[in-house]
Amino acid sequence: MSITVLNNVSSLVAENAVSNTQANLQNTLTQLSTGLKINSGADDPAGLSIAEGLGANIAALTQSSQNASDGVGLLQTADGALSQVTTLLNQAVTIATEAANGGLTTDQATAADTEFQSILSEITQIGSTTNFNGTAVFSATPQTVFTSDGTAAGATTTSTTTGVLSSTSLGLNADALTSTAKAATALTDITAAIATVAATRGTIGASINQLTADTNVENTEVQNLTSAQNGVQNADIAKVTSNLSQYNVLEQTGFAALQQSQQASQNVLKLLQ
After folding, report:
1. Domain with 188 in it: what CATH number?
2. Of 138, 134, 140, which is closest to residue 84 (Cα–Cα)?
3. pLDDT band at 47 (very low <50, low <70, confident <90, very high)
4. Which of 153, 169, 162 is nearest to 120 (CA)?
5. Residue 57 included in any domain
6. Which of 37, 47, 79, 151 is deepest in the core (most CB within 10 A)?
7. Per residue in 152-171, pLDDT tens?
């Protein structure tokens, strides 16, 4: 083997090895500090693209689950209000049945009608004042809930029409209990109104069930996608810790080798002594 002084190849090899080890050590420390094995596009371009795509899906599904929950809340508010309306209409049935029987004095018939009109006013008030998060619950405009997984194909809009709620919408605004004949007519209209309210509650209940099912599906998707994203971007801490020990040892041995290679060059001077 020839002895040269112009180029210390062994020193260059050692320097290159130490440089690579330090780069790997820095990357390992970054993974440990962030908990991620992908911290930049250079780490894993394909993996980063997959992880970011999954992140977008997760964000959309998480908000969609909240949208569906809000929709359920609004519809449950409507259902609760309609339940109260049904209670009021049942009271009206009792009053109208009594007024249609005859035998009431004029004052008693007037009192019955006054109570009946009060019930109608209360129904109208419930319809106009019931709201959810500042939004009127009873409206001719459909209540819509938008859900999506972040893609065009995964977007869905669920619409439910609660309708306007008032004594007029229920067909009761022209009724009065001032005579037995009018009370009998009112009784028929009240019974029809109860059926209308029941049908609306059935529609609302079906939408609540659909949105609840949507929420469950979206939450499951979020769980599965999060697990997939973790597999792509999260660092294996046990493996990274092992790498840390390996690179620390390599760094120390690399510096020792570099020192020895530089010492070998100095030994050439001894030949000149």
Report:
1. 1.20.1330.10
2. 138
3. confident
4. 169
5. no
6. 37
7. 888 999 999 999 999 999 99
pLDDT greater at residue 259 or residue 113: 113
Q: Give the model's pLDDT for residue 269.
A: 59
Residue 154 and residue 203 share a domain: yes
For the stretch 128-139, pLDDT in tens is 999 999 999 999
User: Based on the domain organization, do 87 and 221 belong to the same domain?
Assistant: yes
* Residue 222 pLDDT > 70: yes
User: Do 97 and 14 share a structural domain?
Assistant: no
Q: Is residue 212 part of a domain?
A: yes
Examine the pLDDT at 234 and tell me if it is beyond 90. no
Number of domain units in the chain: 2
Does a structural domain hold residue 186? yes
For residue 23 the two structure tokens come to 């780069």
- Regarding pTM above 0.85, the answer is no
Q: How confident is the model at residue 233 (pLDDT cuts 50, 70, 90)?
A: confident
- Please choose, from the candidates 186, 163, 191, the residue with its C-alpha nearest in 3D space to the C-alpha of residue 174: 186
Q: Domain range for residue 187? A: 67-233
Please indicate, yes or no, whether residues 111 and 184 belong to a single structural domain of this protein. Answer: yes
